[in-house]
Amino acid sequence: MTTVIRRALAPLHQPRTYTRWAYLILGGAAFVPYLMATLVILFLLIYQGGPIGPTAPATEPTTTDTIGLTASLLTALTLIAATALVPGTRAFVAHTTATLLGGPLQDHPPSSEGGRARTAGWLVVHLTLGFTVCLLTMVTLSEAALLILAPLTGWGAADPDRQGLIAPLMTDEAIPRWGPLVGTAETLTLLYLVAGLGAALARLAPRLLGPSPAERLAAAQARADSLAERNRLARELHDSIGHALSVVALQAGAAERVIDADPAFARTALAAIADTARTATAELDHVLGLLREDRAPAAPPRTLADLDALVDATRAAGARVDARLTGDPARVPGVVSRETYRVCQEALTNALRHAHGAPVTLTVRVDTEHLSVHAANPLPAAPRRRTRGGRGLAGMGERVHLLGGTLDAGPHDGHWRLAAHITWKGHRACPQSPSSTTRP
């Protein structure tokens, strides 16, 4: 019983009841300029400059008056709905509603035809309901105050023309006796009515001011695309920076060993370290710019057209690379070309890291709608201890599988072999710089 009473009295002491009441009154106040403007214009047109207002003779309402008032209301509602076309209206209304009305309002989507139509519907509902609540508030609170004070003021006694909602229904004797009770009940009824209307608006707001199901689906897809792009960028960092660090480590070790015996080779190795570091820094800036959602650097991502430079850098790190590229890489779609370059980069990085000094063969064959990548190097005599968990092979597999291709990698006949096959249809080839066949 206590719980029931507490729930019944909750609207009377909850702050949101009064903030929603204020929201409805603001809607009623906003309704007045629309109504007054249309009333003045239409009545001037109907009466054609005749006497209206306080100086007009008092007459009974005519059909013309009724038509004029109805036309004014309809015109006012049309103008209210047209307000949704004003830029920024949806954002302002959504922010105000979320602040005063409450409810699970999500971020409002960009304006669209459907969004503007729903905003127009909300404005009509809010302002019309708010105007009604304004009238009820003025009449009800005024009458309730007079009824509550009736035993002290004698209001309503012997007054057959008294105005209000309840007082005209009461007898002269009942007003002083029951006026305070009736006035209190009238005030409580208004409060519960406002609480109910506010709750109804709070439930309606997400449908009219929030995103539609299609917009929510598009937002979810955008979030999924963003996560997928960040995962792709993580693979980019792993492949490009991992390759660069492997080259730098190997070059630094070689320079340290021969710095006294072969200074010229040491200088060449140090120059290769500097060049590799600059390249890695540029790629890191590119990826970080994308993660910050800033404008990405102008440098384009590397493709098969850059395979020669990749092979030269790997050879400079001390690897013996026999690389061949057959076919025209310009016919390869841009996304396939980029991902294939990363597969080649990861294959050469693994050879440097796990079989340094061993000969490496890399063959890339481009056909009309298919390409293949084959890489092989002898397995080291003694397996090297893994110093960290790698994502290189898994990253290569993800790249190839996302393009609908296949990847096989593993030991075979004393060699580590990698074979990737990618077939494309419907992809648009992106222009690439001219590329020559990479020679051993």
From TrEMBL:
TM segment ranges: 21-47, 67-86, 122-150
Reactions that this protein is recorded to catalyse: ATP + protein L-histidine = ADP + protein N-phospho-L-histidine
Gene3D superfamilies linked to this entry: 1.20.5.1930, Histidine kinase-like ATPase, C-terminal domain (3.30.565.10)
EC number: 2.7.13.3
All copies of domain Signal transduction histidine kinase subgroup 3 dimerisation and phosphoacceptor, residue ranges: 229-294
GO cellular component terms listed in the entry, alphabetical order: membrane
GO molecular function terms listed in the Swiss-Prot or TrEMBL record: ATP binding; phosphorelay sensor kinase activity; protein dimerization activity
UniProt keywords, alphabetically: ATP-binding, Kinase, Membrane, Nucleotide-binding, Phosphoprotein, Transferase, Transmembrane, Transmembrane helix, Two-component regulatory system
PANTHER family reported for this sequence: NITRATE/NITRITE SENSOR PROTEIN NARX-RELATED, NITRATE_NITRITE SENSOR PROTEIN NARQ
Name of protein: histidine kinase
Native source organism of the sequence: Actinorugispora endophytica
